[in-house]
Amino acid sequence: MKIEKIDANHIKITVDSLDFEIFNIELSSLTPDSPQLHTFLFSMMQQAQHETGFNPYNGQILIEAVPGKNNIVFLISRIDADVPKPPRKVYKYKDKTFTVSVKHNSADNPPVKSDVSIHMAYRFDSFANLEQGISMLTYTLLRKGAVYKMDDNYYLIFSLNDIERTKDSINAKLSEFCVPLGCKRNMKDHLQEHAILVAKGVNLVKFAKLQKS
Question: Counting C-beta atoms within 10 Å of the first and last residue's C-beta, which end of the chain has fewer, N or C?
């Protein structure tokens, strides 16, 4: 998945076949009311918001899908950020146009902000141990993580918000291959400044699949 911010009100997301495979979506049988499609679109918009700061919940959003040979390009536009009524997402795919209501957070009911600066971190002392470690995790979980390389070590991190309920299970699966570092505040910022990003999100899933092939 490639996400590009065109300007404050427009982004472009290019999605390939592997991205759809992860969400168990068959393009040949794609329908507007498909639960898999809605789950994918929600995840796609969350990822776009995380990477670009584009807020899909502020106003009405138009999403246009342009099929290519091996991918689909989604063009997302914010039509009016000041619309007072609950917004609707408008989706177009080939000759189909459909809308889906989305929850709107009004000024009277602001979203609860969680601390995204705290991450669970795991240090691997070799690439081989990293390979074995990520092979123990599901693709759904890996989509929420990122791997960095600093000096001779590899660091796998997850936002604590994403794995709060499953962190004990993850620790048990990974402890044989790494050193669990526990909860670290600003760990991501530190790695972004001092380490090299190996893979994150969907690219981390692709990385994991390559190791298994």
Answer: C
Neighbours of 116 (CB within 10 A): 12
CATH classification at residue 135: 3.30.70.1950
- Take residue 129 and report the two structure tokens written for it: 């141990």
Place of tokens 């004990």: 168
* 10-residue stretch averages of pLDDT, the chain, 213 residues long: 86 82 66 68 78 76 78 80 46 41 39 55 92 89 90 89 82 90 82 86 84 64
Range of the domain at 156: 118-212
Confirm if 9 and 78 have CB atoms less than 8 A apart: yes
- Using alpha carbons only, what angle is made at residue 155 by residues 153 and 159, rounded to the nearest 5 degrees? 170
* Whether 131 contacts 98, CB under 8 Å: no
- What tokens were used for 155? 């660091």
- Which of 98, 152, 131 shows the shortest CA–CA distance to 199? 131
Task: Determine if the pTM surpasses 0.85.
Answer: no
